[in-house]
Amino acid sequence: MADETRAGFAVPGAPDSFLAAFKAAPPQFLVDGGYRLVDESYESLVYEANATTTFTKLSTFGFAKTLYKLVFTFRDAGADSTGRQHTAVTVIGQAREGTRQALAQYARAASQVDG
């Protein structure tokens, strides 16, 4: 599928606390991409954005809509050699190129944070 994305990275901290912080203050790439929280569970958050193009709007007389979803899953990744807990974050869904690039940059930066 076009614009499909898949990513995985680990961050310091417990899954429940990282999920809560992520939900309270979503990363800027989600805000810039027009994503909003539409669903959640004890270990995941689902964001959705309207990605309908002008061509689609015109060719369907405004009756069609293209929705992109990103599902973030937060799971325990165990502890490192110092005993600090880590969270494995998995992302799957659809995003435009700019959002995919910003997600990759966010994942690199978040993985390097010293918890």
Q: Briefly, what is this?
A:
This protein is 31% helix and 38% strand.
Describe the structure.
- This protein has 4 helices and 5 strands; from the N terminus they run βααββαββα.
- Helix content is 31%, strand content 38%.
- It is an alpha+beta fold.
- The protein has a 5-stranded antiparallel beta sheet.
- The radius of gyration is 16 Å and the shape is elongated.
- It has a domain at 1-7 and 52-78 and 95-115.
- The longest helix is centred in the last third of the chain and has 15 residues, at 97-111.
Numbering strands along the chain, what is their spatial order in the largest sheet? 1-5-4-3-2
Q: Radius of gyration, Cα only, in angstroms?
A: 16 Å
Number of strands: 5
CA distance, first residue to last residue: 36 Å
Strand content: 35-45%
Task: Please count the helical segments.
Answer: 4
The residue ranges in which pLDDT falls below 50 over 5 or more consecutive positions are none
**CA-based shape:** elongated
Mean pLDDT across every amino acid position:
89
Q: Which series of helices and strands comes N to C?
A: EHHEEHEEH
Helix content bin: 25-40%
Largest sheet: 5 strands, antiparallel
What structural class do you assign from the helix and strand content?
alpha+beta
Index terms:
115 residues; alpha+beta; 5-stranded antiparallel beta sheet; 4 helices; 5 strands; 38% strand; elongated
SSE diagram, text form:
Layout (H helix, E strand, L loop, with lengths): L3 E9 L2 H10 L3 H5 L3 E5 L3 E7 L3 H6 L7 E13 L5 E10 L2 H15 L4
Antiparallel strand pairs: 1-5, 2-3, 3-4, 4-5
